[in-house]
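re: ur question from earlier - yeah i can do the single chain one, its not a big deal. heres the input i used so u can compare w yours
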Amino acid sequence: DIPGKRSGLLAAVCKSLGAATYLSALGSAAYLIEEIDEFRSLGIDVRFHHYEHPVYAQQFPPFAAQASAVDLLLNEGDRSLEILMSGRRPDYSASEAHALAAAARESEEPDP
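and the output i got, formated as tokens:
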């Protein structure tokens, strides 16, 4: 019974659960930053996940990133969790995510 739509609903759910921070996928920054005041008005900080895929030993080169968790487990066994966790980086703030999104848009624009 929580009212709202899109980011407003998400922010209200976070507030109802007592969340102080919402951690989002970086790909959501494009729309979420435009609606960030929905969160800020409720005292919720928005952060963006930052992960750099680690390279690990695979049976057949070249390395194929994001193959699957099963691939990691079969190739690295007991080291899998350590390897998976090694890709975690400090979260991006909303302003950092906004700058990254702007830079990505600029790099996609064709040269005149």
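The chain is about 45% helix and 5% strand. not sure if urs matches, ping me
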